[in-house]
Amino acid sequence: MKLKFRKIAYQLHLWLGLMSGLIVVIMAATGCILVFEEELKHIVHPNRYFVENIGRKKLSLSELTEKAEKALPEGLKVKRVVMSSDPSRTYVFRTLKMGEEAWTYWGTYLYYYRIYVDPYTGKVQEVEDAKKDFFEIVLDLHRRLLLGEKIGKTITGYSTLIFAVILLSGLVIWYPRKMSKAMLKGMFFIKTSANWKRINYDAHNVLGFYAIIPLLLISYSALIWSFEDVDKWVKNTLNGNITEKKAKSTIPSEESSNRENILNLIGNTMEKGLKDKKSALINFPRSEEGTYYAELTYDGRQYRNEHFNLDQYSGDIVKSQSYKNKNIGYGTALRERNYDLHTGSILGLTTRIIYFLAAVIALSLPITGFVIYLNKKKKKPKHKKNKVIFPSQH
Question: How far apart are CA 124 and CA 65, in angstroms?
Answer without folding.
Answer: 11
